[in-house]
């Protein structure tokens, strides 16, 4: 396992230990931001995914949109995985 993967796993374990339960939002959110910052995905919480690119858009624009879209999915799944089951059911159809 590479050092980067090990660090990510270690930080994610913080979120897994203290799942969001409805009463610990501030602590959970602070830990979430730390993990996302380490993974360079914290922008997903603040930048809205723009409309999908036009077919004639430059490849760099397409790549940027695809990365952002994939990061949204990853962050959404991480957020859901670190909630208790009642909150997961409530938010499973909501994007980050």
TrEMBL record:
This is Uncharacterized protein.
């Amino acid at each position: 396992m590479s050092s980067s993967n090990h660090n990510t796993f270690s930080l994610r374990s913080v979120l897994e230990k203290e799942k969001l339960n409805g009463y610990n939002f501030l602590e959970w959110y602070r830990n979430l931001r730390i993990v996302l910052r380490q993974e360079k995905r914290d922008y997903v919480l603040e930048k809205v995914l723009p409309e999908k690119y036009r077919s004639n858009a430059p490849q760099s624009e397409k790549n940027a949109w695809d990365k952002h879209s994939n990061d949204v999915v990853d962050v959404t799944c991480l957020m859901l995985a670190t909630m208790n089951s009642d909150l997961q059911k409530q938010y499973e159809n909501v994007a980050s």
